[in-house]
Each structure stands twice: as C-alpha cells, then as structure tokens.
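Justification of resources, computational component.

The compute hours requested in this renewal are based largely on the per-chain cost of generating structure records like the one below. Each record pairs the submitted sequence with a full structure-token output. That output is archived, and it is also reused by downstream analysis tasks.
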Amino acid sequence: MPSTVGSASSIGAGPSSPIKSERYIDDQPKVGESSKASSPELTDEKKAGSSDGNQRKKRRLFGGKDGSKKKEHEEKTPMVSLVKLFRFADRLDKAMILIGTLAACTSGVAMPLMTLIFAELTGTFLSFNFAGDMNESQRHMLDSETRKYCWYFFGLGMGTWLVATAQKLLWGIASERIGKRLREAFYVAILRQDVGWFDGLSTGELTTRISGDVNLVQEGISEKFSFVLQYITTFVAGIILAFTRGWRLTLVVLAVLPLLAGSASLMGILLAENTSGGQDAYSEAGGVAEEVLSSIKTVMAFGGQLRELERFKAKVAKARAAGLRKSWILGGCMGFIMFSIYGVYALGFWYGGKLVREGRMDPAQVLNAFFSLIIGGFAIGNAAPSISAVASARGAAVKVYQVIDRQSPIDAVDTSQGLSAADIRGEIELSDVDFRYPTRPDVQVLQGFSLSVRAGQKIALVGESGCGKSTMIGLIERFYDPERGQVRIDGVDVREYNVRSLRQQIGVIMQMPVLFGHTIFQNIVWGAADGDAPPTREQVEQACRDANAHDFIMSLPDGYDTMCGERGALLSGGQKQRIAIARALVRNPRILLLDEATSALDTAAERVVQEALDRAAANRTTITVAHRLSTIRDSDVIYVMTKGRVLESGSHEDLIARNGAYARLVEAQHLRQKLEKDVRELGSDGSSAASSVVAAAEAGDDDDIVSPGIAIGGARTHTRPSIQRTGTQGSEDEKPAEAEATESKRLGISALPRLLMMKRRHAAAFIPGTLLTIIDGASLPCFSLVFARMLVAMAIPEPDEQKRKVDLYAGLFFMFSGVAFVAVGGRSLFFGRAGEKITYEIRHAVFAAMMRQDAAFFDKRENGTGVLTARLATEAGDVNKTVGEAFPAFIAGAASIVAGITIAFTYDWRLTLVILATLPFLTLAFFFEGKSVYATTKAMKGAYESASQEAAETVANIRTVATLTRELTFIEQFRANSAGPYRKALRNHAVGSVGYGFAQATMFFVYCLAFFVGSRFVLDGHLTVQNMFNVMYAIVFSAIALGLMAQQSSVLTKGLISSQRLLGTLQSNPTIDAQATDGLHEGPNAGAVELAGVRFAYPTRERAAVLRGIDLDVRPGQTIALVGPSGSGKSTVVALAQRLYDASAGAVSVGGLNVRGWNVSSLRRGLAIVGQEPVLFDYTIGENIAYGNPEATQLEIEQAAKAANAHTFVADLPDGYATRIGQSGGQLSGGQKQRLAIARALVRNPSILLLDEATSALDSRSEKVVQEALDAASHGRTTLMIAHRLSTVQNADHIVVFKNGRIIEQGTHKQLLATGGLYSLLVAQQSLDVAH
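The structure output for this chain reads:
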C-alpha cells in the first residue's frame, strides 16, 4: 500500500497567485493556438485570435502586421511596494539593512551638520571682514574659532568615513545575498511549475528575466536604495535645521516644496511604468533570440537570418520606444527639479536679505538656514538616479514575483505532499478519460479512452501521428490531469501520489532525446532516481553496453568524459538516442514508457538495443509507442488508436488475423515481397561477405578501402575510416576561450569608445548633449562666484547697498534656474535618447553579428544559447546606462572641476594649490572603490552568464528535467554556479566600501584644510575674505560633481566590461559568412554534388575525425541514399553540402563549382533540407511553410502541404493556416511537425533536396503517402536522403553504405543485396513477416 512521503520540506513555496497557462506536449493534434501566447505577461487571460482565417491568408507572410498581436492598450501592471522588494531578506539581511539604514541616515545628517559648522565659521570670517580695525583680539578670535571648527570638520569627516563605509558595505552585502536568493527562488519557481504552464512561455523570456529583471531588482535594493534614504534624510534634516535657524525664511522657501515633491513622484511613477513596458519588450526579444539561436542551423539552411533579424528588430523597437519616452520624462522632470532648486535660491536669498535688513536674522543665521535648504535641495536632485533605479526595480519585480508566487497544481519539487510511490507494482488503468489541452478546448485529444495494463505487462500503442499516444504517456507521468475520468496506478489516482515520487518510478525514452551540456557519464548518471545512491562507473558502462553505446563512447578521445554539447548538439541523433536509452536503463524503473525509443537508430543498432529493451521490460510494466511495427510485435497487447479512441486491440497475431487497421499498417511498412526471397537466396555467402566488409571497416586504419559496389556516375569511390562527431570539451575548447579572454583584456578601456564609434550616426545627439552637460557642470563653479558674493553682500551694514546687491545676485540666481532647466533637462534628454538609440543599434548589430556566424561559432560552449541571450539582454543595457547616466555625470564632473580650478586659480593660486594637493587622496579612494566594483562586476557577469546558460538549457528541456526528476539537481547546480563569484563579490564590497567612505569624507577633510590654511593666508594679509570664499566655493561646488561621478563609477565599470564582450561579438569574423556578397550568385541550377578526398573534423573537436578521404560523385537528377550506423558521417556529408562547415581537406562541389566559390546565400537557396528533428518557429503554420520560400503564394503553400500529407490536419484547425504553433512548434505532435517541415522544403522548389530521416516521426500510413510525395518531388532534382528505414530508400538510384566515416559499399538495392554485404544484412534485420 502507498505510504505517506516523509516530512522533507518543499522548496521555494510561495502563496497562490492566479497565473495560469498550459502547454501542449509532443503529440497533440492540438496545434493551432488562435493567437500568439502572452508569454511575458503570465496572466490568466486567454488570447482570442481572429477566427477569420481567410483574412489572415491575404496578409503578407513576413513583415506584415499579425492579427494575433497583443493589444497595444493593455492594463498597466502595478508596481511592487517598497517593502515587498525586500521579501527575500532573512534576519541577518534585515539586521544589516537596519544598521545600514541607520548609517545611511547618519551619513545624510552629516551634510546639514556640516552647514552648521560651515555657517558659523563663515560668519566668523564675515565678522572679521567687516570689523574695520584689525586688532589682535579679532585676529586671535578668528584663529581660535577657525581651529575649533576645523577640528569639528575633521571629526565629522572621520565619522562620515565610518558610517558611509558601513552604509555601502552592509547594503552591498545584503543586496548580494537577497539578489542571490531571489535569483534562485525565481529559478526554483520556474522548475516547480507544471508542464502545462510553459505553453506559450518563451524560454528566452524566462532566462532574460533571470539575467535582466532580477538584476534590476538587485540594483534597486542595493546601496542605491540607501542613497535614497541618505538624501531623504539630508533633505529632512536640512529643513529641520533651517527651521531652527530661521523659520520665516524656511516657510517661504518651502512654499515651492510641493512642486519638487510632485515632480519627483511623477518622475518615479512614469519611469517605473516605462521600465516595465521596456522590460516586457526586451523579454519578448529575448524569446525570439533564444528560439532562433537554439535552432540556428535550420535558420542557416533556409537563409532565414535576415527574416529573424527583422523579427528581433521589431521587438527591440518597442523597447526603444519606451526608452525614448523615458528619456523625455527624465529630461523634463530633472530640468524642472533643478529649475525649482535654483529658483528657491533666488527666492530664499532675496527674502533672507530682507530679514537681515529688518534685523530679524543675522547673516550667519540666513546662511545656515539657507545653506541647509540648499543641501536639501541638491539632495533631492542627486537622489534622482537612485530613485530611478528603485522605481525600475519596483516595475521589474512584478513579473518576477508573479512567477515566484504562482502555486503549481502539479509541483514536482514539493516532497512533502502526497503518497509515496516507492512500492508500486506498476498496474496502470485509464478509465473513461476525456482530455483536451486547456488552451485548446475546441480540440478533443482523448475521448472516453480506457486502457488497463497489468503489472509487468508489455503493451504497445500504434496509430497515426496526433491520435493521442504521447498524450497518454504525459497523463501517466502526470504532466497533465484529465478533465474527466481517472488515471490510476496500483488502483490509486495519480493525483494522490507525490509527483516527484511517482516520476521516480517511471523511466521514459522520448522520440527526440535531450541531453545536457555535460559529460556523457554525467548525463547517464542523471537517469538514476534522484535521492538514490548514484550509479557506479561499472553500472553506467553496463547500461551503455545494453544500449549499444559503449563501443562508440570508448572510441572518443575522452570516452565517458566527452562533453555532449548544448542539448547534445555534438552527437549524432542515433548516438543521443542510445545514450538516452542507457540513461533510462540505469534507473531500473517499475514502469517503462518508450515513445519511439529506437526511431533514430540504424537497423543493426536497433536490433541490439531492442533486445536490451526487451530484457529491460521483463518484470516491469512497459508501454511502447512506435511507428516501426517490427519493434512491438512481441508486445502482450497492441492498441491501435485513432482520434483519441481505441480502434482495436490484441496481440500481433490476433490483429494480423483480423486483417483490420493494424494489418494494413504492417502491409504499408512491408518491404517489397521479393525482399526476403532475395535475402534467403544470398544464403550464408552473403553473410560472410558482409562480415568481411564490416571487419575491414572496423579495422580503423588509414588504408584506402575499395567499395564493392558500383560507382556513382561511373567512378568507383575510395574512402577512409573516421570516428564519430564528438570529443571532449578539453583543450581545443579552452584555447579559444583563453584567446578571447586575452583579447578582452587587450581591448581594455578602449572598447567602449570603439563600440560607440561604430554607431556614430547617433553622435549628433552627443553634440548638444555634451554642450549642455558642460554648461551644467560649469554652472556650479560659476554659481559659487555669485554665492560667495551673496554671502558677503548679506553682511553689508548699509541697507541700501545690501538691498541693491542682494537683489542683483538673487536675479542672477533666477537666471541660473533657467540655465539649469535647459542644461540639466537637455543633458538628460539628449544622452538618454542617444543611449536608447545606441542600445537599440547595438542589440540589433550584435544579433546581426550572431546571425553572420558560422555553425562552428555556435558549437562552442562559451557561445551557448543562454550565454548569448543574456548578452543581448544585459550587456547592451549596461552600455545604455553608461551613455545615459555615467557619461553626462563624468562630463559634467570634468567641466565642473576644470571651471572650478580655473576660477580658484584666478582668485588665489596659493590656496588653490593647497586644496588641489588633496586630490591624490581622493583619487586613491576612487581607485579602490572602482577596482572593487570592476572585480565584482566581472565576477558576477560570469556568474550571470553561467546561470543563464544553465537556466536556458533546463527551461528549454523542462520535460526531460521533469521526467528525470532532476529539478533539485539543477537547482543545486544553479546555486553552485553563483557561489564562487558571490563570495568574491562580498570580498570586493569590503574593499570598495572603505574607498567609498573615504571619498565621502574627503570633502570634510578638504574643508578642514581649506579653512585652516585660508585663515593663515587671511591673517598674514595674503588673501582677502572675499577671494578666499571665491576659491573655496569654486572648489567645494566642484566637489559636488565629484560625488556624482563617484556614484556613477560602478555604472561606467559595468559598461566597460560589457563593451569588451559586445565588441568581441561584433568583430568576430566567421569563416563562412552567409551575408557576404562575394561568390557566384546565380545559384546551383544543376544538382551535381561531389566530394573529392574529403576529410573533416568539427572545429571544436579537432582530434575526433568524422570523415577521412570520402569520394562521392552525385549526378544531376539522381536520388542517392546514404545508409549505415548512427554516427558514421552521413549527416556530416549533408552539412558540408550546405556549407555549414568547410572540409578540413579535399573539396566539396555543388553544381560543378567548389562550395567555397559560391555565394553562401545563393548556394543554400538552391538546397532544401528536412531534418531528423524538424525545427519550426513561433509563426503561423502558413508562415512556417513559407519559411522555405517567402515569396510563395497561398496556393503554393497549400499545394506543398497537400504533397506532405499535412493539408487535412491543418484545414481541421479553427484558424487553418493562420494557426500559431508556439515556440519551436511546441503545440504540434512530432509527426505533424515533420510533415510541415517537408512542406517547407517542397515549397522551396530546390535543385537539391536533402532528407535526413525525413519520415522517421511518421506513422506507416502517413509515411507511405509522404514517401510517395517525396519520390515525386525527387523527379528532376538531385536528392540526398539519409534513412534507417530501408523501405524508404530501396527505389534510390544508388545507395551508399557508410561505416565509421567510410563508404564501404554502394550500388542499387538489387546490386547491394546481390553482394551479400552490410546492406543485405540490414535489410534482413529490418524485414517484417506479414504471415505472423
């Protein structure tokens, strides 16, 4: 009896959230979503597409407006509250935040306190200036007061150093901890979702949010949040101090406070809204990038790079529009804020002068009160970038928290709920099951479906593609729940079992197996039930022997330690399937589900593996889905399905005797009746000949082997042996990575200017932006001149003269307010717009550069889909912030420093030199802070890329992760990827915080030194008080700009690092450039294909040769079949013909011309391929077919679909050819996808047709119809076909047999049977006796 699972706690559980979305599985007739899924929104709303298919058919297939686009005016997403931003803080984080907040507030109070000291000391100097007689007592008073207040400055500086260091350190560490926890929680939340939730959700969008939105949230809760608190404290403390020193003046000045507060609040709200919209658009663009990059070879084959570039461009254009609106908002609000601040100065000093004349305040009180208000005003302005960061975090957190808060109805990560399935026997019963995919309620997949399987029984499901076979497997795994009826295991409804425990008792081998970017050994180990002791090396090797994989693995340079590549990309289809079978066998499950488990294997391997599977099926419940009926003839019961119902059932013999649907399926798959007679006539001699050929092939030497067959085109071919297409991710992969790292260092600080120069057409915005920024920067020192004179004017004893000068300087202050409005608003606007436009161009250019790369570029691990998607998401954004925020801050800072020093030198060079002597200390502080920020940024970028790659791979293959119940494994790996950089980031925060604290305290130390030395010069008669103020304030106001530069140093650092990576991608020149204009453009009209002495090894695996001296001559119009074991080099020949790679030696010619002489795009235009694992895109069905020929008419599209036996199922869909099929065609069954892929190839009308297992996913009836269509399509054009089902190649003009990269025999079907070689053995193994 089932028992309750132990009390292990669930991971990352969150409160329920009404977010729902479902996904189809591989086999549905359930294509057709009416409209494009609303992936980034993650909402309940079902997108209702237009039912008017005829209207959509009239639209252009590419580039036109899609009727299923999202509504432009969507409900605005609310922002997360400030408190909720910190929901992932633990007690230690909260304690650090509390102490850090106290430190931030204390740091904020330092500036108003400084004004108190400053005002008193300034008052002392003013009293001395207007004292008249300079007697000894007055000189002594000035000296003693100066010394006293200078000590106050020094103490305030030391205190500020301490609290500012604590502020940045504690907030920095807390944000790293919370950000790490948030990133992990988001990843966990994704992995715990039910499979149906992923319907319409682009994996690229999810991984973009991990690397983009989570980073925005972390930035918003970092020290930038503390800066907001600090500046608010400064503002409030300044007002309080101002009230205590002069309440009348303060009230008048505060009359404009509502304007400041209102504009700041409006800015925050509008920025958050536009940030959220921009991030949604970037997420959509990330989804496009992920889909395209993960299917890049299909894009290359059909010349779709420019089309995909336009699709990506349309998405980022929406983000650019939001960014441009954001720059207008930021410019207008910032300009108005600074206008108000300077306007306050004019009003305040005018009214302060009046109060002094009336005797209600003295000049020191006016200065103190007003200087406090000035500091408070500047604090509001300085807080704007940090407020923007916090507002952006609030907007970005909404979507992240929605995913985290969604409680999955089928949670595979939760180990605490439900019954344990550890002791199940394996009885399976489906009772009157109705099922429709929730997002396709109008398509019934299963209807009244009932099935009973005894424990240990072996049953098979057969039927046409899309009849519901794989759907039933998904229900047993509990990927979905039925809408009616029950699925029971051992008499218990599967909904009562713990999901994780249930899946651990089930082994699944899918039609299109997925491997992960780790070693072969690790991939197989992950097949074992998570939580059990991992299998030993011996157990793994035995599983591989049973799966017929051990020999090919051991032939690789690194054996079981060979890397598989992203999604197993560095292995052939057959090799992947054998490893997937070994992975399932090592689990030793109670229930074994085989969904076309041997479809990618050659006949010999299939027989060996099938025997292993038959042994594995002993004493366990086995359900097999198969189109190759030879693999299921020994099943206890065979169920024939059609349209979600059971048509007939029984044993193989019973069903043959009935002469019903099953018998017709067998007949359709039977080789010609003469086949077995021919094979029998060959007798033992044939077997001997074949054995000798195989032995020669396996010898593995480099001697030429003469094929016993007939030469193609009259020439006998000679071949050399090779090994399979893989190797380890060893030194070959590491060398390019090291070279790239060296190049990255060499680029250094020059990368960003070089990157911007490439986009210099937007430099026009830099000209007015730079001029306005210089004006803005220089206005502060110039303002200091008026400010210094105003201070002196306030103390003039004659009322009339005082009024005249105060009014004059107040008018000048108001003039500065106008200058500030134009300069600050203009700089924010121009640099913001330039940043958005340049970012748009960079994203577009980088994606275009990726589209230019050859296949070898994408084979490298460092160029994995997740890494490249993250690069597009985050690194271009870093450049945007650098241009929009850091550039103006540094330009303004430089202008302010130059102007300030110039003014200071003009009035007194001695005091200026003394103050400038402090700059090395300030520079040292900036250096330490910048160094730590650089190291932290670089380390975390590595962690983000690694984590994004891991996330992209697992989310894209979520079904495999769920089947293997390896969610916890990948969660731990995700954590491990960021553990090292995280620890390094914490250390760097410690170093950088000390530098930051010192930089903040330096200003007080400068005041201390300046006032003390200034007093010496004044007392010695070398300097007047007026000139001392001119020098000091010129330097002091310049220091304000330095503080802003210090805040933006981290932004600049991130921009520099990101620029290096982006520039590296932009300057990467492919060996094979599909967008190059050189080469012959006419296209190969003649379909001749020739390989002469071709040797080849994949660039990332140079030690593992794939082809050795292949000679092949294919004449125009011939149909040539390539057969042989998996991994023998057949698909490589097809790849070389398309020039996805260049041969290492020898020549590959198409149409009588070496492929290197063709224009790459023109060459591929003359070819069309149907791959073993067909890739479709998130377009409509009509657009997917037209991907082969964008100029195709609707009639041509439908004719191609009819030829591929796809028109009927498409026409049955509510939206017909206007039906969207989801990312990667995820809403289609395997057979449906393959038929559309065939239609896509046929509509291209190519000179050369390349078929790589083109019918492997089809049922027998569809295969027969489609094969007839392919045979008809082959007339008049050259066809290269790869097939393991020999019934599909027997009519070929020539059949070429590969073994270990060699051609060991070739000829016609009859000739090869007569030779008694390997081919005849393959035919004998594959023949199915109809008589049984």
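The CA atoms of residues 746 and 1201 lie 54 Å apart. The longest helix spans residues 136-191.
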